[in-house]
Amino acid sequence: MVTRRQYLYGIGAAGITTTLAGCSGGGGDTETTTTTQDSGGGGGSDEVTVAVGPDKKLRFEPEDVEIPVGGTVHWEFESEGHNVTSLPGASDKCENPEGAEPFASYDGNNHFSVDDVGETFSHTFEVAGKYTYVCAPHAGQGMVGTVTVTE
Ligand SMILES: [Cu+2]
């Protein structure tokens, strides 16, 4: 009997060893892989952040973003002298879908009022279509971005 128990134990130990080897080869905790779904799309994220003037460049990064209806874009001002506007009066590059309210990081029609570094301007998009917006002071230098809002 003792001999037989030892025999079975030997098999069990061998089985455990094999399982552990398989686990460590696969990176261990398999549940961590599910976190990648957050950034993987699957309907698109309804919250997008755009950097305004990163590294003092006269650019939005990313320049083109896409969100579903009801989604929000956050513009974070990373260098001085910029704003965000799709008001037709700010630049002839500005475009808004039919029936959509233009948006701007400032009130009224003072298209050269700029935002302080560290500020964030957010806008929630309720009308589908493609919006083209600019930084009014730098529209001529190509500081232009788009937001595509999908149904
Ligand atoms: Cu600018």
Could you explain how this protein is built, in words?
The protein has two domains: 2-28; 45-150, Immunoglobulin-like (Sandwich), CATH 2.60.40.420. 16% of the residues lie in helices and 25% in strands. It has one helix spanning 2-25; strands at residues 47-52, 60-61, 64-68, 72-77, 120-124, 129-134, 144-150. The strands form two sheets. The chain has a four-stranded mixed sheet, with no helix packed on it. A three-stranded mixed sheet has the order 3-7-6, with no helix packed on it. A hairpin with a 7-residue loop joins β1 and β2. The longest helix has 24 residues, at 2-25. The protein is globular, with a radius of gyration of 27 Å. The site of copper (II) ion (CU) has 8 residues, from loops.
Task: Please outline what is shown here.
16% of the residues lie in helices and 25% in strands. It is of the alpha/beta class.
Mean pLDDT: 81
What's the CATH topology label of the largest domain? Immunoglobulin-like
Q: What's the helix-strand series?
A: HEEEEEEE
Radius of gyration: 27 Å
The level-1 CATH class of the largest domain: Mainly Beta
3D shape: globular
Portion in strands: 15-25%
Q: What is the overall number of helices?
A: 1
Query: What are the segments in which pLDDT stays under 50 over at least 5 consecutive residues?
Result: 1-42
- Going by helix content, strand content and strand pairing, the class is alpha/beta
Unique bound compounds:
copper (II) ion
Strands of the widest sheet, in order across it, are: 2-1-4-5
Query: Could you name the CATH homologous superfamily of the largest domain?
Result: Cupredoxins -  blue copper proteins
The CATH architecture of the largest domain comes to: Sandwich
Number of folding domains?
Answer: 2
Question: Can you give the helix content as a percent range?
Answer: 10-25%
Could you describe the largest sheet, including whether it forms a barrel?
Answer: 4 strands, mixed
Distance between the termini: 72 Å
